[in-house]
Amino acid sequence: MRGIATFGSSEAVPAICRALEYGGDRKFRRDAIEVLGELGDRSAVPFLIQAVNRWGDTAAIRVLLELGGRDAEDAVIRQVNDGHDWRTSDLAASVLGEKGITSAMPALRQFLEISDSSYSIQVAAMALNQLGDTITGPELTEWLRQGSSDQRWRAAIALRELGDGSANEALLNGLRDPEVEVRREAARSLGRKGDDEAIATLTAAMDDVDERVREEARRALGLLAKRQWGARSTAL
Questions:
Q1: Predicted confidence (pLDDT) per residue in 90-121, tens digit
Q2: Full-model pTM
Q3: CATH topology for 134-236?
Q4: Is the pLDDT of residue 236 over 50?
Q5: pLDDT in tens, 38-48
Q6: How do the domains of the chain map onto residue ranges?
Q7: What would the 3-class secondary structure string for the chain be?
């Protein structure tokens, strides 16, 4: 594959695209995609889109956004909610945030609302934060206060990456939620973004009836203590 690339873009790109169209094994397709990215010719975009749609080749996601263009961006955005599998969806969400593709915000919000994976929810929230989203955080805060059990669970995870000071207040209330998974995720999020005001409520959560919540509260308090120590050391 690398040998073909030495012929130059005008000859190599069509040859590699034709080979990619017929598939081959995963390693062959990955090598072909990497070479197309190095050659930087946008005529490869339709073939890269096919590689993602047909085989779920995650390597093509980054190359598509590097080549640029609305067709490439739209193809990656579609992968967020209609991906070949969870790997392509998670990677698409992550890379769209890294690359600053703000047109992906609606798809990322939808991903956050429908994914059943806590990791995927956090990936979507992180991407929205990278894109400067200011709408979803307040909505999630309201979800955590009075949404359904599913919405409260999602909010407790996503507010790890989104939301302002009011989100911390909602997360503190989340530690008293009737659902174990909401309390657990709220504790985890407070460990990530909480401040001194969270210490008392997290300490109380050490007596939660569920062992998983107690463990997350312990970890969160440890993270808060580390941040306090780091802040004091910096001040000295």
A1: 999 999 999 999 999 999 999 999 999 999 99
A2: 0.89
A3: Leucine-rich Repeat Variant (1.25.10)
A4: no
A5: 999 999 999 99
A6: 134-236
A7: CHHHHCCCHHHHHHHHHHHHHCCCCHHHHHHHHHHHHHHCCHHHHHHHHHHHHHHCCCHHHHHHHHHCCHHHHHHHHHHHHHCCCHHHHHHHHHHHHHCCCHHHHHHHHHHHHHCCCHHHHHHHHHHHHHCCCCCHHHHHHHHHHHCCHHHHHHHHHHCCCCCCHHHHHHHHHHCCCCCHHHHHHHHHHHHHHCCHHHHHHHHHHCCCCCHHHHHHHHHHHHHHHHHHHHHHHHHC
**Length of the chain, please?**
236
